[in-house]
Amino acid sequence: MALIRLWLIVFALQVALYLLLRFSIRLRQVERLERRWDDRHPGQGDRAARRAFVARGMASFGRSLRVRLAAVVFVLPTLAILGIVVLVNWQ
């Protein structure tokens, strides 16, 4: 029962951390794309083109390595806990 409780708590923490990381990384990428647009098109107020540029950039970003690395939030802690359980119970 304690193992199930531990798993549920760790899983809830992993989901929360994953969502926070994903939101933070995506927010930083949107800001980076908007700055890139502003640098390339100074003084232009074409909001539709800017939104399209950001949308295209975010579509390619969704498949990038950074977002996949956030999935490691689920794998590494689980493997660490499994390793600790095995080492503690090894006889």
From TrEMBL:
Keywords of this entry: Membrane, Transmembrane, Transmembrane helix
TM region positions: 6-25, 69-90
Superkingdom of this protein's organism: Bacteria
Official protein name in the record: YggT family protein
Organism: Paracoccus rhizosphaerae
